[in-house]
Structure formats: structure tokens, C-alpha cells
Amino acid sequence: MRKIAKSALDSLFAAMSESKKVYLPVDGEGGARYQLWTEGTVLSEAVNTVRSAKDFFFPQTENLVEFKMEGKKLDVIDVRRETEDFVIFGVRACDVRSFDILDRVFLGAPVDTYYKNRREHGVIVSLACNKPAETCFCQTFGIDASAPAGDIVCHMTDDTLFLDAKTEKGEKLLATLEGVTEPCADSAADEQKALIRSRLDKLPLKGLTADKFGGDKTKEFFNDPAWASLSESCLGCGTCTFVCPTCQCYDIKDFKTADGVRRFRCWDSCMYSEFTKMSAGQPRLTQKERFRQRFMHKLVYYPANNEGIFGCVGCGRCLAKCPIQMNIVKVMKKLGEGGDKND
Ligand code: SF4
Ligand code: SF4
């Protein structure tokens, strides 16, 4: 393990930037967002960024391929480029877990080479949550915000940042930082971890469990009458899916250019009325069906196909951002904890 004074963080980011682009959460209008580090950029202390770190590996829009036409000649142009190495600094435990969830989708056969390329070039430097928010419930899914995963795991005290390399990628990066960091005992961050754990124990959602959900619960919950009241006010705005670090649905569209066609993909949302609309018709005609799909996917369908792992990481973004205050916690409580399902 190594450490650096908090007052010297600029020199840490400068040293990292010598070999890689470094992105970190920065406060701005409406909350924290990842931003490229340049001299003077100040690290946010917010627990969550507004948009999650999934954007680095699965951007909101990206070009997939281009077709150029000249008379009867058609050229297919591969627009993929090798991604530059980059560092994402300050990723919270929940968002680090979200990469595992996305990996199972994009790196399973057939491998999504666009995603894989970025994943291979990204180094994750995580940061334990000193002040978890009241909306946080990562513990529900077995995530420990005091000990995140990541290539390098960091803990911050009032005056020191501790860095612990956990993977080969992390060790390589930490080795390049020896000029600005100094060695310390492996137990140096233990006190901070204990402090964080004591705060996690006091969170209002600490007792929320996902025990009643899982891959074998389709029959139990699919026709539950509670979906009607839960979804009644849903606007279908898609905000919950766009801020969610684990939502991964996208659409592929063609855009006509002057001499051909550009094929691109963009995030889509199962909350939208046109999602999965086909020439044969619309499989989910009502907002109730669309709403149910989102939560059944996170709590039942994803675990059914992924060894019981849930498709939510408890980041709390949907709790904070839904304009009608509907969210996965309310759904879990209503469906799983025996509330009055008809009110
Ligand atoms: S649950 Fe909330 S955020 Fe999600 S689509 Fe409905 S209204 Fe929008
Ligand atoms: S469903 Fe909500 S709490 Fe769960 S990962 Fe997505 S945004 Fe976070």
C-alpha cells in the first residue's frame, strides 16, 4: 500500500496523466460529473456522479460502421479504433460492481468488441465512500462500500489518500506513481474502513434484503396485482434507466449521410413506449408492462441468467432522480415484504 497527502492530490493526478488520460468526478451545476483532469481540476466529494461511470465503456451514442456508396459499389468501413489507455479515478463500490454486470452482457458470446476494447484500456481506481447517502443500499446486494473492488482501491481520510493495488493493471499504474507517493503499512486504512462500516450500519435502507427475489421468481411476481399501483404514475421518462449504472439496453439506427449510411447505436429504455416495437407489433402495450419489465429484469431475469447475481447495485440514483419518487426500493418493499398490494 502507498499513500499521499490529500493536499498533494494534484501531483498524483499529474503523475497519472503522464501515461494516461485521467477522469475524475468534478462538481458542477446539477451535481458531480466525470471530467478529464487538467491542472487545477478539483475532485468532488459527492458520493455519486449524476451519470454513472458506465459511460466510459458503454457511451450513450457511438458509431458502429459506415457504408459508402458510389454507383453500384458499396464499401463497408470499420470505424473502430484502438482506445487510448485511461484511468477512471474515484469510482464508488456500487459502480465498480456495475462493470461486472455489464461485462456479463457485453463480454459474453458474442463479444461486443466496442465495449471490450474500452474495458481493456480502462484502469479503475475506486474510492471508498466516507459519507454514504441515505439513498444508498449497496449492502442489499452484498457490496461493501468500505472495501470496493477495482484495479487500485483508495481510502481517503481528512489528510491522506491511501492506494492499494489489487490487479496487475493496478500494480503497473501504482508503480508509475512511486515518485509522488510513499509506502505505508497494509493496515494503514483500517481505521477509515471501520469508520465507514459504522456509518453504513446506520443507513436507513440497511435492513433491505433481496432474499425474496431471484431467478426462480417469475411466476411469483409476474402477475402480481401490485404492478398496477406501482406503475400508475410512471411518466415513462426513462430517467431511471439513463442514470442507472447497470441498464444496458440500446437501439441501432442508420443515419443517411451525403454519400452513404452511418450506423450508430444509442441508449434505449425499456420504459419507452417504442422500446422493442417491431413490424409485427408492440410486445408491451402498457406502461405497467414496461415498468414491470425494468424491475423484473433487475430482480428476476438477470439473476436467472447470471448465477443469481442481481442487476441492481443499490447506488440510489433512481431514488434521487425519478420525478415521481418511484424506485426499485419501493418495488422491492411492495412486492417482497408483503405490503398491501392493492392500495
Ligand atoms: S420510474 Fe420514474 S424515472 Fe423511471 S420512467 Fe417512470 S417516472 Fe421516469
Ligand atoms: S436500479 Fe436504481 S439503485 Fe439499482 S443500480 Fe439502477 S439506478 Fe442504482
Structure summarized in a few sentences:
With 343 residues, the protein is of the alpha+beta class.
Characterization of the model:
The chain is built from 11 helices and 12 strands. It is an alpha+beta fold. Residues 339-343 have low confidence and may be disordered. It folds into 2 domains: 2-56 and 78-200, no CATH class; 218-336, no CATH class. It has helices at 9-17, 93-106, 113-121, 168-175, 190-200, 218-222, 226-231, 239-243, 287-305, 317-321, 328-336; strands at 2-5, 21-28, 31-36, 61-70, 73-78, 86-91, 122-127, 152-156, 160-165, 182-183, 250-257, 260-267. It starts with a strand and ends in a 7-residue tail after the last helix. The radius of gyration is 22 Å and the shape is globular. The strands form 2 sheets. Strands 3-2-6-7-8-9-1-10 form an 8-stranded mixed beta sheet. Strands 5-4-12-11 form a 4-stranded antiparallel beta sheet, with no helix packed on it. The structure holds iron/sulfur cluster (SF4) (2 copies). One iron/sulfur cluster (SF4) binds at residues 234-240, 271, 322-324, 326.
